[in-house]
Amino acid sequence: MIKIFFCLLFVIGSTAFASTKENQLAVHLLSYLAQDYGEAVANGKVISKGEYEEQIDFSNEVIRIAKENNYNQSLSSSIQNLNQSILAKSKVHEVSALANKIKSEILKQFNLLTYPETKIDLTRAANLYKNNCMSCHGQNGYGDGEAGEGLEPSPTNFHDLERMKNVSPYGAYNTITLGVNETGMAAHDYLSKEDRWSLAYYVSSFRFKNIEKRAGLVLDVKESSSLSDNEIQKKFDLKEDDLMGMMATIRDINSPPPSNGNKGQVEIYLKKAIKDLKASFSLYKAGKLKEARNLSLSAYLQGVEPVEGILKSKNADLVIELETSLAKYRGLISESANHSKVESVLNPILSKLQGAIDTSTIKKTNVSSFLVSFGIVLREAFEAGLILFLLLSLTRKSNATAFNKHIHLGWISSIAIGVGAYILLSRYISITGEVAESLEGYTALIASLLLFYVGYWMHKNTDIQKLKDKFTSAVDTTLGSGRGLTLFFIAFTASFREIFETILFLKVLILDGYQQYFVGIGAISAVLLTFFVILVAIKFSIKLNLKYLFKASTILILSLSTIFLGKGIGALQKTGVFPQTSLDIFSLPSIGFNSTLEVLIAQMIMVLLVLSFFIASRLKLEKGMA
Description:
Helix content is 71%, strand content 1%. By secondary structure, it is mostly helical.
């Protein structure tokens, strides 16, 4: 039986490995189709019979892989369309775009690793190139090596801009790993994975050796590795004049980028949001409602959210207006409203985004780096700090400070786990705005439930002396107890819900050209100030009557539960988890209300529950006194 079990494991593992290799081959072939189709066809005519036949062979091979690996209907249809486009000798940019789109979908569906897991070593890569590639590709990468003479097709010229603009580092890595059948390009899978990645980046950098780096766009290696120059240009709507300088910065991952100037990442990301919103409206007019809504979500999550912290530090009202307007825009799309009504909501959003770009100029001095970071972290820290103050004040006034260890363990572990999880996830997953919003949304909902439970429990125990006795008699309670565990989770969720977003905000500040050292000092200062205020507030609370502190805390905790409920639903609405029905009324982010029907209903139900508890307790008290 055990032997059979291990045999099954071996077969399953072998099948998964084979499938992964097949998917990698499909991506490799699609990259080759995208970059070489222009050498086979021009203006609807075949200009190289050999290249054209190779294009057909490669597209047929991708069809085979799709069939044998059970690709879904949508992906298989796209692959068939690509094959038909090649047979019809369609325009170069159409075939290349379709091949790249299919490639991206395969990478996404099968979760293929498209970036290096270790640091790139370009010095070692130079020696690897000399020993493994120079004989064919030439000393300087012009494809003029002695061993490459007479080869058909000829070795790649790494300075050929039109060709190389379609090649991502991941594409180069696949070519180095798998080779190209029936050509002089052999597989180099005998090299380690680390060496192949270093070599891929080395050959991708040849064309930038005499190009001056330009600031503006800094991408995470996980994002840039899988994208070609053309894909990056299209995604971020980069101007042709800026492209080479920016790509020189992006591809040289071993050197620090030049100063980002004045606008930097804010301009890049907000321009992406504008582009995506315009495209979503075009899709909407074409009747593609689902695609339009998805792209409008992407406009926020990939365009606005990554730089939201910077925008808030300059104009918090603008962020509120954008979130409210975008929610209304998505709601109108879902309702299939008439085009003019949707456009009347969209145009002010585009104007506000453009205005934010035009006013985003700020000299990134040490002082501004400190102040922007300080403001972002202080705002996030005070939300969690308020809850910690309430918990610590109650335990102190109730002579139950033994429970403080649970509270402190909660917020300390939230920071440790949050930072650790960020580092771990960033290694294997690209932490996008969607990931951050999802984490914030779910933790906010958990925190809301926990706070509601505590508020209900406190309201139920209206006899202050009995409550104090309960706390006092339980001072030796361990973490496994109900009360200690509840306090731990409240402190944990209250702190954890903001950690990912705060880390992303700080990361964007650094990428945007703010001084890293002073960004760190600003963040630490904000945390220290929050702790100082909490300590002073707790000292002051000792003078308050426990009865009034208890009642005020009950009301505040239940209010925070309602606020967190609204914020949690609102965050998940931004990711598309919950629907959004926009209301033409005010928004109040401070109480978690984002002007949508779903949040209004949820918060009203919570308020009604709280009021019913108060009324029931009041009636019970009056009945007992009668």
